[in-house]
Amino acid sequence: MVSGMEATAPDALNPTERALLERYLTNLDGRVFALRNLPEVVKGALFSRYSRTEKSLRRVLLDEFLVDPDAGISLDPTGSLPDERISSERAEAFYQRVLVGYGDDSVAELAGAHVAIERVSTLAAKALEDSRIGLSPLEKSTRYVRFDRPGPDGRFLYHRGEELRHPAYEPALDSLFRTFSELLTPVLEHVRHRFPQHEGEGDRAWKSATRAKAFDLLRGLLPAATLTNLGLYGNGRAFEYLITKSAASELPEVRALSGELQSELAKVIPAFVRRALDERYGAPAAARLEAVRRRLSMLAPPASGGPQGPEVRLIEHDPQAEAKVVAAALYPHSDLGWGELRAVGVEPARVLDALLGDRANRRHKAPRALEQAVYTFELSANFAAYRDLQRHRMLTQDRQLLGTGLGYDLPAGLAEAGLAGRFAAAQEAAARAQERISADLGQSLAQYAVPLAYRLRWFVSANLREIFHLCELRTTPEGHPDYRLAAQEMFRRVQEVHPRLAGYARFVDFSQADELERRSSERRIDEKLAQLGG
Ligand SMILES: Cc1cc2nc3c(=O)[nH]c(=O)nc-3n(C[C@H](O)[C@H](O)[C@H](O)COP(=O)(O)OP(=O)(O)OC[C@H]3O[C@@H](n4cnc5c(N)ncnc54)[C@H](O)[C@@H]3O)c2cc1C
Questions:
Q1: Nearest CA to ligand 1 atom 12
Q2: Ligand 1: residues whose CB is within 6 Å?
Q3: Which of 61, 316, 342, 356 is deepest in the core (most CB within 10 A)?
């Protein structure tokens, strides 16, 4: 057998070259190696040039980047990391030349950045997370963090922009946060009484699990204006589109974030976000997106009510789905064309069993053949549940504006604690304020005043592979009951039309147990901490 090392054509590096390269590559002889200690833009440009030359990457790096002072790569032999900002600024013209000469739009996928975005409304966070390929978001959790603590000025932490100047706004939002604060202690006491500490259960685990349950019960009081923090990791191409698209938002807060994102990313991956807002590409694209939104909103018929309860409807599916999945499963193993394979009578049960019958846990991914079965659902669920489900990226979804017309969900656990009245009164007062704000400032801005308990409608088009993933992940017992219910209902709709296909998603959990969702996860954390010695 030939190992990776032996299979590599040697680069014939002399000792000086080896010493130079060592700092930037994880090995100098193997055929697989990683880049390190190089600014993001350099890595993107290097790969871009690499795709248009016969040279090895080591030779390109040596001959065309490290020796050229314009490339701005510090050759400081002390081995300290190059300063990304200085390197990138100095090297601007150099990289423009490389990218113009050897790159296309996809080169911007070769450089990435981590961005922290702080003190933004939950509404704006959702807009920034509404991206799929190329971006990975992670947002501060309403389950683990208290959101009702006031800021240094003593005021609750929610978005207060100039655009939201309205006499009903701050009183309504203050009242929601105050209700959250006032209910927290009685809710926590109730939860701890209802789910007492088990024998052998550590203090930390029990306290964390009961606290998470109390936060879960109360999160519906938080308005969409609640300030949150999020981390975004993404590649340059995805960031470029996010910046352009955010510049077209109807929300001034999101438009401002577009500019801030652009200027901060320009410090680390300048070559890849330059066009995001420029006169030639970005600005006209954003203006067009805004014009399209205006045109469509004038054409859309007015609202006429909606379901008054959580609901998941299957609005489209393909009656041929199973036959297509079977053909797609056999296709790579056959030399018949697609049409011929569809026409051959193969026993679907045998093919599906061979394809899926041995899945032992949800991490045994459903195979690509399942992407042939596509479903469209319409969901009506509370905004908090939407926030959780919207993070799934391998599907097509779009939502309607937040409002109070579809009603709100009252968590059963609050009624049990005798605290439903307080929660309901706060929700109803918020709805009255939101209606006034909507009448005066418009429905878009009034979204900020809508508490997370209120329902909205959205559609989801997804293939069966993603439905397996989403429904198996989002029905695990540690999940929040609201999104668990939505995922369970989505899956029931699939079972109704395609019972045999659905039968292979064995890890969708339909249990309705009224339990302490985080209990077993927290126990596992304790066990792992004990193994790690603290
Ligand atoms: C119990 C629980 C708690 C959570 N808490 C939080 C929280 O506090 N804050 C928060 O922000 N999120 C939270 N999440 C959401 C989570 O981080 C994911 O964003 C969300 O579940 C999307 O699922 P996914 O990434 O598995 O897959 P999807 O986006 O549905 O994609 C499907 C699959 O495609 C692949 N894939 C998609 N995109 C990429 C990519 N960029 N790179 C590599 N592979 C990719 C993966 O294999 C993935 O499993 C929580 C999820 C759960 C289940």
A1: 138
A2: 136-139, 141, 391-394, 469-470, 473, 478-479
A3: 61
Which whole number is the average pLDDT over 35-42?
89
The helix/strand/coil state of 320 is coil
CA-wise closest residue to 113 among 41, 46, 24, 176: 41
Decide if 255 contacts 127 (C-beta within 8 A).
no
> Among 98, 71, 68, 67, which residue's Cα sits nearest to residue 82?
71
For residue 242, report the distance from its CA to the centre of ligand 1, in Å. 19
Query: How far is CA 142 from its chain centroid?
Result: 15
Query: How many CA atoms, within 13 angstroms, populate the side-chain half-sphere of residue 268?
Result: 16
**How buried is residue 75: exposed, middle or buried, by Cβ count under 10 Å (0-12/13-18/19+)?**
exposed
Phi, psi of 337 (to 5 degrees): -75, 170
What is the tens place of the pLDDT at every residue in 143-159?
999 999 999 999 999 99
Q: How far is the CA of 474 from the centre of ligand 1 (A)?
A: 10
CA-proximal residue: ligand 1, atom 9 (nearest): 139
Residue 232 has pLDDT above 60, yes or no: yes
Residue type, 211: R
Nearest residue to 386 via CA among 310, 462, 449: 310
Q: Which tens digit of pLDDT belongs to each residue from 183-214? A: 999 999 999 999 999 998 899 999 999 999 99
